[in-house]
C-alpha cells in the first residue's frame, strides 16, 4: 500500500501543542455559527460576521446540522475560544446570541434590520477593501453605553471582552486598519453595529504632490512643464473633505507614505459591512440556559421568581439523582460482565484439563495393547522357533482411542484468549 497523504485541513492546521505567544493565547477567540431555519441571508450574515472577528476566529469552520453546541464547547478550551456567536432564524425573525464559554452568561439580541457586506460595499461611492486589513483585530468604539442596570453593564463588558485589549505602550498604529463602532440609542433601546476600514491621509498636500509622495507616476501629457503640474490648482482628498475634528497629530511614523511622526493627518473611514441593528431581549446566567437575569418583554413578580428558582433546584436534584442511579447501574453492569468473563475462563481451563486426561488415557491404552502383543509374539517364537506372521497377533480395539489419536493431540497447545470467549 502507498503512503497516506496529509489532507488539506491537516496541512493548514497549526500544531496545537506548539509553544504559542502569550499575546495570542490571552487574546479572545470566537466561534461564529448559525442555527435554525436554513436560508441564504443567515449564511451570508454569518460569514460576514466572521470577517469582522478575524483573525481570532474560525474563518473556515465547517458546521453541520448534527453538530450541537456541546461539540463546540468541548473543543473551545484547546483552541483558546472564549466567546461563541450564534445567528438563528425563526418564523418571527432573526436573532443573535453571544455566549461566554464555558459557563456563560448568554445575551440574546433580536436583529431588527441588517445589511450584508456585499450590499454595503456596492452602495458606497469610495470603496476600500483589502486583505491586509483583516490580518489584525479591529478597534472597538462604543458610544453612549453608560446607563443604570446590571444588564446594561453586563452587555457593555461582553462587547468589550470580545475584542483584544490595546497596550498603549507597545501598540503599532500601522496595524490599526479597522474599527467596530457600536452606538446605543436610549430612546429606542437599539444598538447600531457598524464596521469600517481606517485610512490615514496627510493634511496640507495638494493632489499632485500627494502622488509624488506616494511614489505614483503622474500624467504630464497636459502639461508643458513640470512646474505646471505642481502649480495646478487641485485639492487633496483631505482638503476636499476638510473637517478639523478628523485631524490628528501622529505620535509615530505609519507604514503609509506621507504620514510621518508628529505630522498632521486626517482620519477617513470606509464602511466594510455588515450593518446590524440589535435590541437586547434577554440575559441568562448560564450557557444558553440558567436563571434569567433580565427580560425586555416579560416582567415577573418576586413570587414567580421564587417558584421558578424552586423548580430549577428540584430539576437539578432530580438530575443528580438520575446521574447517581446511572453510575450505580454502570458499576453493576461492569461487575456482572467481569463475573461472566471469569466463568468463561474457568470453563476453558476445565476443557483443557479434560483434553490432557484423554491424552493420558490414550497413551496408557496404547502401551498396554502393545505390551500384550509383544508377550504373545515372544511366546510363539519360544515354542515354534519361527517368526509369527504380521497379522497373527494384531488386535482390533473397538471403542478405544489408538496411538495415532494420541500422536495427533500430543503436541497440541490449547490457547486461552479471554477476549474471544462467548459470554453465557
Automatic annotation (TrEMBL):
<feature type="domain" description="Brix">
    <location>
        <begin position="28"/>
        <end position="289"/>
    </location>
</feature>
<dbReference type="GO" id="GO:0030687">
    <property type="term" value="C:preribosome, large subunit precursor"/>
</dbReference>
<feature type="region of interest" description="Disordered">
    <location>
        <begin position="237"/>
        <end position="260"/>
    </location>
</feature>
<protein>
    <submittedName>
        <fullName>Protein Peter pan</fullName>
    </submittedName>
</protein>
<dbReference type="GO" id="GO:0000027">
    <property type="term" value="P:ribosomal large subunit assembly"/>
</dbReference>
<dbReference type="InterPro" id="IPR007109">
    <property type="entry name" value="Brix"/>
</dbReference>
<dbReference type="GO" id="GO:0006364">
    <property type="term" value="P:rRNA processing"/>
</dbReference>
<dbReference type="Pfam" id="PF04427">
    <property type="entry name" value="Brix"/>
</dbReference>
<feature type="region of interest" description="Disordered">
    <location>
        <begin position="317"/>
        <end position="347"/>
    </location>
</feature>
<feature type="region of interest" description="Disordered">
    <location>
        <begin position="365"/>
        <end position="387"/>
    </location>
</feature>
<dbReference type="GO" id="GO:0019843">
    <property type="term" value="F:rRNA binding"/>
</dbReference>
<dbReference type="InterPro" id="IPR045112">
    <property type="entry name" value="PPAN-like"/>
</dbReference>
<feature type="compositionally biased region" description="Basic and acidic residues">
    <location>
        <begin position="325"/>
        <end position="345"/>
    </location>
</feature>
Amino acid at each position: 500500500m502507498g503512503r497516506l497523504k496529509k489532507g488539506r485541513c491537516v496541512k493548514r492546521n497549526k500544531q496545537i501543542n506548539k509553544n504559542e505567544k502569550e499575546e495570542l493565547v490571552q487574546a479572545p477567540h470566537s466561534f461564529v455559527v448559525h442555527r435554525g431555519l436554513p436560508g441564504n441571508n443567515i449564511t451570508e450574515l454569518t460569514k460576514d460576521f466572521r470577517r469582522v472577528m478575524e483573525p481570532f476566529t474560525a474563518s473556515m469552520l465547517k458546521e453541520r446540522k448534527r453538530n450541537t453546541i456541546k461539540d463546540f464547547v468541548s473543543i473551545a478550551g484547546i483552541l483558546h475560544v472564549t466567546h461563541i456567536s450564534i445567528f438563528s432564524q425563526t418564523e418571527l425573525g432573526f436573532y443573535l446570541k453571544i455566549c461566554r464559554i464555558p459557563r456563560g452568561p448568554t445575551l440574546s439580541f433580536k436583529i431588527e434590520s441588517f445589511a450584508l457586506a456585499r450590499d454595503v460595499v456596492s452602495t458606497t461611492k469610495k470603496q476600500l477593501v483589502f486583505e491586509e486589513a483583516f490580518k489584525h483585530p479591529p478597534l472597538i468604539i462604543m458610544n453612549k453605553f453608560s446607563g443604570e442596570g446590571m444588564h446594561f453593564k453586563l452587555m457593555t463588558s461582553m462587547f468589550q471582552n470580545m475584542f483584544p485589549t490595546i497596550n498603549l505602550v507597545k501598540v503599532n498604529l500601522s496595524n490599526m486598519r479597522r474599527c467596530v463602532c457600536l452606538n446605543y440609542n436610549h430612546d429606542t433601546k437599539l444598538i447600531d453595529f457598524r464596521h469600517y476600514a481606517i485610512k490615514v491621509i496627510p493634511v496640507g498636500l495638494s493632489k499632485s504632490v500627494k502622488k509624488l509622495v506616494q511614489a505614483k507616476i503622474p500624467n504630464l501629457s497636459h502639461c508643458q512643464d513640470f512646474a505646471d503640474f505642481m502649480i495646478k490648482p487641485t485639492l487633496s482628498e483631505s482638503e476636499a473633505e476638510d473637517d478639523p475634528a478628523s485631524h490628528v497629530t501622529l505620535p509615530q511614523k505609519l507604514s503609509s507614505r506621507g504620514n510621518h511622526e508628529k505630522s498632521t493627518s486626517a482620519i477617513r473611514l470606509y464602511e466594510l459591512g455588515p450593518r446590524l441593528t440589535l435590541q437586547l431581549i434577554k440575559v441568562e446566567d448560564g450557557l444558553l440556559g440558567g436563571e434569567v437575569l433580565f427580560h425586555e418583554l416579560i416582567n415577573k413578580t418576586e413570587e414567580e421568581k421564587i417558584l421558578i428558582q424552586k423548580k430549577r433546584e428540584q430539576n437539578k436534584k432530580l438530575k443528580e439523582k438520575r446521574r447517581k442511579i446511572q453510575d450505580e447501574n454502570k458499576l453493576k453492569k461492569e461487575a456482572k460482565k467481569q463475573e461472566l468473563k471469569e466463568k468463561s475462563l474457568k470453563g476453558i481451563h476445565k476443557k483443557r484439563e479434560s483434553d490432557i486426561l484423554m491424552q493420558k488415557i490414550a497413551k496408557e491404552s496404547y502401551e498396554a495393547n502393545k505390551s500384550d502383543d509383544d508377550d504373545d509374539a515372544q511366546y510363539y517364537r519360544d515354542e515354534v522357533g519361527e517368526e509369527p506372521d504380521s497379522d497373527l497377533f494384531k488386535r482390533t480395539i473397538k471403542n478405544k482411542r489408538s496411538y495415532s489419536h494420541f500422536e495427533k493431540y500430543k503436541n497440541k497447545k490449547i490457547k486461552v484468549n479471554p477476549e474471544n470467549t462467548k459470554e453465557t
